[in-house]
Design brief:
mainly alpha; 2 domains; 13 helices
Length: about 325
């Protein structure tokens, strides 16, 4: 995979000013970031999860949840519910619906459930009824809806095929949660290969149209074959790296948040980011040059996981 392709794939999650600097600051020099192979594999898995799988799942879940919402509007009038008359249990799976998660009920009313606004206004609200409140912080099936929420939606809502639910649960347990625990020593070559095989199987089980399936599988295949090579890449100027270091330091400061202080997973991730930043600093000292790609990775993790790790791990 070409360096410029990796950078382009990450642009949507970078600020506009950083995108411009990446495009305008290039160098013919090359260098190597001397990270352990298991750290590289951990980084690549994270990029694949959040840059390939997550966008695909956002597209996948939307029409299925929308169809379910329209059906429940017709049969149970969930869009006009009141505090006295509302659907308490989703009977097909005997699931107790979590109204604390919608209409800002937790913030406005706390534990006073009798005051909750029970009106389910859209498919997004419907999906939140099947999740724990701390996971239901998204506003649409877009960049606010992270991988943990998407997998939980698929696993908890019976409108998704059973085979897809089983595969989603395996992805959550064996890849996503394992990766989020930031124990890079687990990412052996065998686990790396097995994880990509599971991701490919999951995509095939989803049954999306052939063009979309081939595109997603192609992206996954590229990361599997070429991902760890991105540590040997072009370098860039000091202005962008100053921005990168500012981001990683800001990430460190996030640990001052009392909620994050209790999240050991976040601290493991934080330590890996600090390690990467130190490696960049070493290269700056030794060569006076900077690694573009690993800087982009620091930015990627900063924006994706600062929000994700504010919630308790699933």
């Amino acid at each position: 995979m070409a360096v410029h392709s990796i950078i382009s794939s990450l642009h949507p999650i970078l600020p506009q000013n950083i995108q411009g600097q990446i495009q305008s600051t290039t160098s013919s020099s090359t260098g190597t970031l001397d990270l352990d192979d298991d750290v590289k594999r951990w980084v690549v898995i994270g990029l694949c999860l959040h840059n390939v799988l997550t966008p695909a799942l956002r597209i996948y879940v939307s029409p299925i949840v929308t169809q379910m919402y329209n059906s429940l509007v017709s049969t149970d009038h969930i869009n006009t519910q009141t505090s006295h008359s509302y659907l308490r249990i989703y009977l097909p799976t005997k699931t107790k619906l979590n109204y604390e998660a919608i209409n800002n009920n937790k913030f406005l009313h706390g534990g006073q459930a009798w005051k909750y606004d029970r009106c389910v206004k859209n498919p997004i609200d419907l999906s939140k009824l099947f999740l724990q409140t701390h996971m239901a912080q998204y506003i649409a099936f877009d960049s606010t809806c992270d991988l943990s929420a998407l997998l939980a939606i698929i696993i908890n809502i019976d409108q998704f095929p059973l085979a897809v639910q089983k595969e989603a649960n395996e992805v959550r347990t064996s890849i996503r949660n394992c990766w989020a625990h930031c124990n890079v020593m687990q990412w052996t070559p065998a686990k790396f290969v097995a994880s990509f095989q599971l991701l490919e199987s999951f995509i095939k089980k989803m049954g999306v149209n052939a063009t979309e399936e081939n595109r997603i599988l192609g992206d996954i295949h590229n990361w599997k074959l070429n991902g760890t090579n991105f540590m040997n890449i072009s370098m860039l100027g000091a202005e962008l790296v100053s921005e990168i270091q500012t981001a990683t330091r800001a990430l460190t400061e996030c640990s001052q948040d009392d909620f994050i202080e209790t999240d050991s997973n976040f601290h493991r991730l934080q330590k890996q980011l600090i390690k990467i930043e130190k490696k960049i600093e070493e290269l700056k000292t030794n060569t006076g040059k900077w690694l573009m790609e690993i800087g982009t990775v620091c930015w990627f993790f900063y924006y994706c996981f600062r929000n994700e790790h504010r919630a308790k791990p699933i």
